[in-house]
Amino acid sequence: MIKAIVSDFSYVLLFPKDHDYSGTLNGLHKEKKSEPGFSVSDYFKLNAELLKYYKSLKNSVKLYIFTSGYIQQESALADHLGEVFEAVYSAGELGMHKADSDAYRKIAELIQLETEKMLFIDDSKTNC
Asked: Whole-angstrom Cα distance, residue 25 to residue 29?
């Protein structure tokens, strides 16, 4: 039985507003954040439908984010995420790569749950 959903952030819960942009969202954030008047909402949009669905699951399973970067720390995003997710883990902060299976064992250890009871959702087959 699934006890926790661990969701990726970039290109799952967050997308660029520019539909032609195909780079990393953390790269775009790094490039734009120092511009005068920068606002996350000018360049990014949350997947409101999925976020709402995740929120509806809160009483059934624990919800976590496991992502590679740091953009989720922006206060405009973190406020929304804090309402839904138990915790947000960054592979970069853990000193790991998401494609490394040890990273998922580390998340399981952190949330004190067997990997068989976790469902991971990601936009990259390599990470899954």
From this structure: 6
Q: Which residues contact 66 (CB under 8 A, 6 or more apart)?
A: 6, 7, 8, 89, 90, 91, 98, 103, 104, 107, 120
pLDDT digit string (tens) for 77-100?
998 899 999 999 999 888 888 888
Q: Which of 11, 115, 5 is nearest to 72 (CA)?
A: 11
Q: How many Å separate Cα 49 from the centre of its chain? A: 15
CB atoms < 10 A from the CB of 66, how many?
Answer: 27
Q: The tokens 């990273």 sit on which residue?
A: 103
Rounded (10°) CA dihedral 28, 34, 36, 40: 40
35-39, 65-69, 120-124: segment of lowest average pLDDT: 120-124
Using the structure block, give the residue that is written with the tokens 């669905």: 53
Least Cα distance to 13 among 40, 58, 52 occurs for: 52
pLDDT at 80: 87
Residue 123 has pLDDT above 90, yes or no: no
